[in-house]
Design a protein that fits this description.
about 180 residues, alpha+beta, 7 strands, about 30% strand, globular
Length: about 180
């Protein structure tokens, strides 16, 4: 009998990246326990520097209702990110309309332990202002997006779904080009 391994993918693009303001606080324990792997990765979207001094990732408004929204059930969210059913979610017609998307560079966090993911994602949801009981008032929403992770060289890429926090409010941020949050 084969045991299924746990995997919770989270794409980070700002203060949670290695060297970022919140990396140590929110990632240290899972890294020390050996339950968090980190790889360079990219996704499509827009990255802004907000006047408050932190980044905002923005997806096209047309995608908001199409992309699955995170839940309080981390195990179910992990399964949703890995399921083949998501491959049928087609954004190609929208992508044609959204030519102003950038390749946002960040890191792909892979949690390999359910308890560690539950602890960290619950804390991150709170820090990011993602409240399931008040979606309209949430600062960020956690949604699934396609990411490309880079294995060794840029020539070897793996495409997969990962959770990301996207900004949920109007803003006066400055668009970053290239789409990289410097830590």
């Amino acid at each position: 009998m084969m045991t299924q391994t746990f995997s919770f993918p989270l794409f980070v693009y700002g203060t949670l990246k290695q060297g970022g303001q919140y990396h140590e606080e929110f990632c240290r324990q899972s890294l020390e326990e050996g339950y968090l792997d980190i790889k360079p990765a990219t996704t499509r979207g827009r990255l802004y520097e907000l006047p408050e001094g932190y980044p905002a990732f923005e997806i096209p408004e047309e995608w908001v209702g199409l992309l699955p929204l995170g839940s309080s059930n981390i195990q179910a969210d992990a399964q949703l990110a890995s399921t083949q059913a998501l491959t049928s979610l087609s954004l190609s017609s929208i992508e044609a309309q959204s030519l102003e998307l950038d390749h946002v560079r960040g890191e792909l966090f892979i949690y390999t332990d359910l308890s560690a993911a539950q602890r960290d994602i619950k804390a991150l949801d709170k820090m990011e202002g993602f409240f399931l009981d008040n979606l309209a008032g949430s600062l960020y929403h956690r949604v699934l997006v396609k990411v490309e992770s880079h294995l060794g060289s840029q020539a070897c890429q793996l495409s997969q779904w990962a959770w990301i926090y996207h900004y949920n409010r109007p803003h006066q941020g400055k668009r970053l080009k290239p789409a990289i949050w410097e830590v």
